[in-house]
Design goal:
It is built from 8 helices and 18 strands. It is of the alpha+beta class. It has 2 domains: about 120 residues, no CATH class; about 210 residues, no CATH class. Strands 4, 5, 6, 7, 8, 9, 10, 11, 12 and 13 form a 10-stranded mixed sheet that branches. β15 and β16 form a beta hairpin. α5 runs antiparallel to α6. The longest helix is centred in the last third of the chain and has 16 residues. It is globular, with a radius of gyration of 27 Å. InterPro entries: C-type_lectin-like, C-type_lectin-like/link_sf, CTDL_fold. This is C-type lectin domain-containing protein.
């Protein structure tokens, strides 16, 4: 079993211990406040030209970070990347993408459908309900387990007040992701109609992100009308959001990628794998990407990642680099381990052209080969051209 340990990177090659190292450098989002007032469209164009785009807010942790960073650096309001689209879509208030598996965001068992924009729940069915109606909030606490995760609040509230109450005291309003959770919520609610985290609105993010996170001021309705509008965070409301005319000139927040997060991976040499074998290298990179997809700092489509592999002499100065496209990494990667099945990699390694070529290099030569014979062998050999240790290769992260 080959074990990879990911942590903050400090390069320290140790060939005597029989370990191989490579470094991984990835971008992570930074935020820039532009104090020069612009319309929403002008701000959008500026951010796309100078950085990535207007800022997208994915969860309460990011919202609190923005508020902490910029609360004293503007007077009235700041543009963020949210604007009003035309087609309302149902979302869950709890916006953590890693909380939902495939199909769980759309586990809707409607009792009836109408024009209301907030979701209540009773006896296993969802109801489209006026957001101003009074219902008992059913909160969710991610720090608990089982039935204890769900807390029925004894006071009836409107949907927006219910969401704010649950975010303040727990995690958020409850999401219903599958039939098992539906059964638990029915047990906790005792047959009463309760607010869950379901809502519908037409708002879109400038960078096409799908974040359902919203942080409206208390008086803001979930969905008002189809009139064009853009969104700003307000200083007098502790950073909460409200609509503003898109032609109003305001300072704004950009999302940039101007710093790096470094990781180190240590490969134990006793696995019998050849770290210079492209099959082994590509398999390791794929497993790292798959692991990071569910980590605290997932690699996203468009993320830029640079890998530095050791040369054949294990010299840190002679490395092979792999470069992938632009990236976003949302938080620091905590120390964790990834297990690589060495047997399957070893089988692939033995059968790869590179492995065969390395093996032939290590066997003693009994006769000299003329340059013409070498050229003939290269033309007829199915192996790929040799790559120098310093060559930079590129690959694309699948969307």
């Amino acid at each position: 079993m080959l074990v990879l340990t990911l942590r903050r990177f400090v390069f320290s090659p140790d060939s005597e211990a029989g370990s191989f190292f490579f470094s991984c450098c990835v971008s992570k989002p930074q935020y820039h406040l532009s104090p020069s007032p612009k319309t929403y469209q002008e701000a959008q164009l500026f951010c796309r030209d100078k950085c990535v785009d207007l800022v997208t807010v994915n969860n309460m942790e990011e919202m609190e970070l923005l508020q902490e960073m910029f609360q004293d650096q503007y007077e009235d309001a700041l543009w963020i990347g949210l604007y009003k689209g035309t087609d309302p879509t149902w979302h869950w208030s709890l916006a953590n993408e890693r909380f939902y598996q495939e199909g769980q965001k759309t586990y809707f068992t409607w009792q009836a459908q109408n024009g209301y924009n907030c979701g209540s729940f009773m006896n296993g069915l969802f109801y489209m309900t006026s957001c101003h109606s009074l219902r008992f909030p059913l909160c969710f606490d991610e720090n608990r387990s089982g039935l204890e995760q769900y807390i029925l609040v004894s006071e009836q509230m409107k949907w927006m007040n219910s969401r704010d109450h649950c975010r303040t005291h727990y995690t958020d309003l409850a999401s219903v992701r599958n039939s098992a959770e539906s059964q638990m919520i029915q047990s906790v609610s005792g047959g009463m109609e309760v607010w869950v985290g379901l809502f519908r609105d037409p708002w879109l993010w400038s960078d096409n992100a799908l974040s359902p996170f919203r942080h409206w001021i208390e008086s803001r309705e979930v969905f008002t009308n189809q009139d064009p509008a853009c969104v700003a965070m307000l200083r007098t409301e502790s950073g909460k959001w409200d609509e503003r005319p898109c032609n109003q000139q305001l300072p704004f927040l950009c999302k940039c990628l101007d710093s790096s997060l470094n990781l180190q991976v240590t490969l134990s040499a006793d696995s019998g794998l050849d770290v210079r074998d492209p099959v082994v290298q590509q398999s390791i990179l794929q497993q790292i990407r798959e692991d990071q997809t569910s980590s605290a700092a997932p690699l996203c489509p468009g993320d830029k990642i640079q890998m530095e592999w050791p040369s054949e002499k294990n010299s840190p100065r002679q490395t092979r680099k792999y470069v992938e496209r632009q990236v976003q990494v949302k938080s620091r990667v905590k120390e964790k381990q990834v297990q690589v099945k060495s047997k399957s990699l070893r089988d692939k390694s033995k059968s790869s052209p590179e492995s065969k070529r390395n093996k032939s290099k290590s066997s003693p030569s009994h006769s000299e080969t003329s340059p013409s014979q070498v050229q003939s062998q290269r033309e007829t050999s199915p192996s790929q051209p040799e790559t120098s240790p310093s060559q930079v290769q590129s690959e694309q992260v699948k969307s």
